[in-house]
Amino acid sequence: MRKRNNYLLLSLCLMVAIVLGACSKAAEPAETNETSSKDNGLVIENRGNTFTYNEAPKRAVALNQHATEIMLALGLEDSMVGTAYLDDKILPKYKDAYEGIPVLSKQYPSKEVFLQQEPDFAYAGWKSAFTEKTLGTVEDLQELEINTYIQESSNISGPTLDDVYKDIENIGKIFHVENKAEEVIQTMKADINKTIEKVGPIDKKQPVFVYDSGQETPFTAANNYLTHLIAIAGGKNIFDDIDKGWAEVSWEEVVNRNPEVIVIIDYGAETVEQKKEFLLSKQELADVSAIKNERFIVLPLSAGAEGIRAPMSLQTLAEGFYPDKFKK
Fold first, then answer.
1. DSSP string of 100-128, one letter each residue
2. Is the distance from CB of 93 to CB of 73 less than 8 angstroms?
3. Taking a C-beta distance cutoff of 8 angstroms, is the pair 111, 85 a contact?
4. Which residues contact 119 (CB under 8 A, 6 or more apart)?
5. What are the chain's domains?
6. What does the pLDDT look like over 95-141, one tens digit per residue?
C-alpha cells in the first residue's frame, strides 16, 4: 500500500512539474532576429570607424561652429561640457544656450584642456580636429573611451543638403533625440522650399564668382557645398568645373568667365569693405559685369559650412541673384 502511495505521489509531482514548465515557457518572450539597441548598443559608422553607444553621451564637446549649432538646434546644451572654434557669432536664437557652455578655445583646444572636461564624446565639423597635433587621433580617443563624430558632409567631395540631413539624423540617434532631429530637418526643408518657390522658374542661372581671399591669385569655391547652395538659389558658380572644394584660380580666368554676381566671404582680419574696394579698384576686372554693376552678396564664413544655416544662406543668395522676386 505504501509502495502504491509513493507511485501516486511521484506521478503527481511529475504532472505539477510539467504544468509549471509549460507556463514558464509561455511567459518567455518570442525569439526575434532584431537586436535591441538597449542590449547591444547603437552602432554608428563614421568615416571608416565604428562606434558603439550603449547610452547617449553626457559630456560632449562640439568643435567647429556648424557642429555646435547642430547640437544647440537639437536642444543638447545640457549634454555639452565644451565648445570651440567659432568662425562667426553664434545664431541669436541659440545665444542664451551657448553662453551656458564653457568655451575651451578660440580654435582647437589643447589635448590637456580638452581632457580636463572629462568628455565622453567629441563632435567635429572638420577632420582636422582629430590629429596628433590637435586633440589626438580618433583611435587615441577611442582608447580613452571617448567616441567621436566627424561631420560626413563637410569632408566629402560635392556634398548636398541630403548629406547634411544625414549628419543631423546621426547626431539625433546618438543622443536619443530622433524626433527633434526630424523636426529640425523638416523645418529646414520647408524654409528652403519657400525660397525656391519665390525664385520660381528661371531662363538662365546667374554666373557667380565666390571671392574668399587672395590678391595675387584669388581663392574661390569650386565643387563644394556652397556651390550646391548657389545652384539651388538660381546661380551657377563659374568655377564649379574644378574638382576640389576650394581652389586658387587666376584673375585672367575670372575675367574670361565674366561673373554677373560676386559672393564675398566675410571672415578674418580683412573686412568686407576692404575686399570690395580691392575688387573694384583692380584694373583687370573693370569690364567684368559684376564689377561694373557692383553686384555683391556677402556671406559669413559659417554660411558655407554644412549645418543648419542652409535656409538663411539660400535666402541671402536668392535675394541677391533675383532681388525683384523678393520685393514686397
1. TS-EEESSSPPHHHHHHT--SEEEESSGG
2. no
3. no
4. 59, 60, 61, 81, 82, 146
5. 39-176 (3.40.50.1980), 202-326 (3.40.50.1980)
6. 999 999 999 999 999 999 999 999 999 999 999 999 999 999 999 99
CA dist., res. 165 & res. 163, Å (int): 5
**CB count in 10 Å sphere of residue 101:** 21
* Pure H helices in the chain: 2-27, 37-40, 65-73, 95-99, 111-116, 138-143, 161-174, 178-199, 225-232, 251-257, 272-281, 289-292, 310-321
Q: Which helix (H) or strand (E) holds 207?
A: strand 206-211
Give me the amino acid identity at 137: T
Which one-letter DSSP state was computed for residue 213? B
Tens-place pLDDT, residues 159-218: 999 999 999 999 999 999 999 999 999 999 999 999 999 999 999 999 999 999 999 999
With beta carbons less than 8 A apart as the criterion, state whether 94 and 72 touch. Answer: yes
Residue 39: per-residue pLDDT: 54
